[in-house]
Design goal:
173 residues; mainly alpha
Length: 173
């Protein structure tokens, strides 16, 4: 078997293994189904282009999540509808509108809607870390590899996010 065939076989396994979890990871970041599909496609293109760069012993899951996270963040940076107010705040109206109209969540569930809105209000790094830990149940060490930080920083961002979410949800009662 030649190396291209082995590489293609490995990529097919990666796609099969990670397609659904990466879709939901990306979707939580960009909210829209169509945008999540586009970012997921770009993610798999990058995985295909750089599959040979995955180092032996390196966490495959952290590697593919890092690519997906970077692609989603790049999409968020270039999205013209979103106006950055400062380094941490993003104009939420486009994301909230999508949240309400895209079928992302059951809009009849007021608590879930407030929870999702609260997550969207978090600074980008805290939102990313929170989603990776809460939804994907990744360990802090892996989150650190994905976000390019340390495990201590990931843990701090997660706890800050939880505190902000609690405060926001309690203020909305």
């Amino acid at each position: 078997m030649n190396s291209l065939h082995l590489q293609q076989s490995g990529i097919e396994q990666v796609i099969e293994r990670y397609q659904e979890p990466l879709y939901w990871h990306i979707r939580r970041m960009v909210v829209s189904h169509e945008d999540a599909e586009d970012v997921l496609q770009e993610t798999f293109i990058k995985i295909f282009q750089h599959y040979g760069a995955l180092q032996k012993g390196e966490s495959e899951r952290a590697w593919v999540y890092r690519i997906a996270t970077n692609e989603a963040l790049q999409w968020l940076r270039t999205k013209r509808e979103m106006v950055y107010l400062n380094d941490d705040e993003v104009e939420l109206k486009p994301l909230l509108d999508t949240l309400l109209t895209d079928g992302y969540i059951d809009t009849g569930d007021a608590l879930l809607l407030r929870f999702q809105e609260a997550i969207l209000r978090l600074p980008t790094m805290q939102r990313t870390v929170f989603n990776l830990r809460y939804y994907d149940e990744l360990p802090y060490e892996e989150i650190a590899l994905i976000t390019g930080s340390t495990a201590a920083s990931a843990k701090a961002n997660y706890h800050l996010a939880k505190t902000k979410l609690s405060k926001y949800l309690l203020s909305q009662q």
